[in-house]
Amino acid sequence: MPEITRRDVAAIIDHTLLKPEATAAQVADLIRQAKQLGTYAVCVSPSQLPLADTGEVHVATVVGFPSGAVKPQIKAAEAEQAVRDGAEEVDMVINIALAKQGDFVALEEEIATVRRAIPETLLKVIIESAALTDDEIVEACRAAERAGADFVKTSTGFHPSGGASTHAVSLMRSTVGDRLGVKASGGIRTPEAAIAMMEAGASRLGLSASADILEGTDR
Question: Which residue, 15, 19, 98, 167, has most beta carbons within 10 Å?
């Protein structure tokens, strides 16, 4: 694999601030940092939308966050509102119970409900991989692909089971091939971890420690 540079890493970062206590001033600072760092996007809570002065930085948000335990129609309505408020990308949390119960038909329909609500918007599906078995990860990714998702994503970063792992990223990539993106998010705090996720198959990174990570990738 070619050497991964600072620019390579920055180009796939969603610079993220999803703490529920985050203020408008902190979000404005996030945008300033994203511009300075050259990250691909910022990812914020939907209540913070619309954002001002983002320049070339893309705008992502989350729905059904962080538990995923709301009705599909609520997630769809939340996604529609977010797009009206300027979101270019939506990261939705699945109903994890459906995956644990093995009800992947219902899971596919949940994702499809959100997909139908925002047909032109890039949709990432958060499967909370650390809470799933390998078989459940595979089936959740397959359901997301059948439902028309653009990305599968490891984690919210808020679940007690943990965040991203290279094992989960590799498994997700092998399941979706090059047909979907794979976003690694949750607990990625060092340059080494970020690069390991990319080498495992991640095509997007959700990071809150973007500045420190990018400083460490200058090589």
Answer: 15
